[in-house]
Amino acid sequence: MSKKSFRIAKDSMGEMNIPAGMLYGASTQRAVLNFPVSGRRFSRAFIHALGQIKLSAAKANQKLGLLTRVQAKAIALAATSIRDGLHDDQFVLDI
Description:
By secondary structure, the chain is of the alpha+beta class. It contains three helices and two strands; from the N terminus they run ββααα. It is 46% helix and 13% strand.
């Protein structure tokens, strides 16, 4: 029995096959297929900054009462893993 090399994700335009192991969704996969413009990806420094911004936003929004502690903790965990480079392979779109 062979494993699927993709999963199916849906967005407002329909279903897309997403490569196995990728965390992004249908809209990102559609962009990968339709807009291969430069072959250049975002730098590690830029991805690090995105993670740091999301982490700071989660903390601020929890303090403002806009996120629960559980929500803020989940976002902080994801943001930290992005900031620390654990998901660089998920940033697949051209600049």
